[in-house]
Amino acid sequence: MSERLQLHEYSPSGNCYKIRLTAALLGIPLERHEYDILKSETRTPAFLTEVNANGRIPVIQIGDRFLPESNAACAWLAHGSRLIPSDRFDQADMLRWMFFEQYNHEPNVATLRFWLAMIGEAALSDSQRTQIPIKRAGGEAALGLMDEHLTDRAFFVGESLTLADIALYAYTHVAGEGGFDLGAYPAIGRWLARVAAEPGYLAITA
Amino acid sequence: MSERLQLHEYSPSGNCYKIRLTAALLGIPLERHEYDILKSETRTPAFLTEVNANGRIPVIQIGDRFLPESNAACAWLAHGSRLIPSDRFDQADMLRWMFFEQYNHEPNVATLRFWLAMIGEAALSDSQRTQIPIKRAGGEAALGLMDEHLTDRAFFVGESLTLADIALYAYTHVAGEGGFDLGAYPAIGRWLARVAAEPGYLAITA
Question: What PROSITE patterns does the record point to (chains A, B) (predicted)?
Answer without folding.
Answer: GST_CTER, GST_NTER
